Amino acid sequence: MTVSPKPIAELKNKIKFVLSDLDDTITTEGHIPSESYSALWKLKDSDIKTIIVTGRPAGWCEMMARTWPIDGVIGENGAFFFRYTNKHMRRFFASSPELIETNTAKLDIIKNEILQTIPESKISSDQFCRMFDLAVDICEDIPPLSKEQTATIISIFEKHGAQAKLSSIHVNGWFGTYDKLTTAKFILTNEFGLTEEQIQTSCVYAGDSPNDEPLFSYFENGVGVRNIEPYLPILKSKPKYITQHAAGKGFQELTEKIIQLSR
Ligand SMILES: [Mg+2]
What is the pTM of this model? Predict the structure, then answer.
């Protein structure tokens, strides 16, 4: 039976940790609106920890971990976690940095095959900031590819034994068994000392895309921002809650509810 997400107004738990996707969950049309950035500060001021969970590259995550009012970033779909605390950058890698060279060579073969098969596709402009994955642009800087073209890109990754996940802007592919969920669970347990029960009662996960699905399947308090709606029919694991507003405004709506519950 398919269960539709409930309005965010029905969230009841006191939340201590907000894990959130970045693109089209905190951002709106590629920018961070003032309400999203202000929402991050309000969470911090309310003593609620925020962890960004994104497919974006190591270079971006270094900057976010260092300069944003957050408690860490999981990047490249779970390849690593960076947390800047007490003037020290703590780093956890799910994939061994020693494998970068070998995996980059294997991803290069995949890259060439994708560009030959789908000439309209493009490697993401942030690829040079990446350590572990290959990101193929499907609509960020190019006209949107069709669903069939996107599916072909995913199948090329998978044919070569790589994992591939679809975000709202890229197809990301990598070698390794990690994903956003495995790293999120590891970090919540080992870095923040939460038990399984505490994770389920005191954390929310917010996202907008199929690459957030593993987290929606695990977190009891999974929240989709409104722009997830077109993907709901293809998601086997749907978020339990949905915001009224899309993207950054939806994130703000979620944080207001969480802060209200924390009082
Ligand atoms: Mg997203």
Answer: 0.93
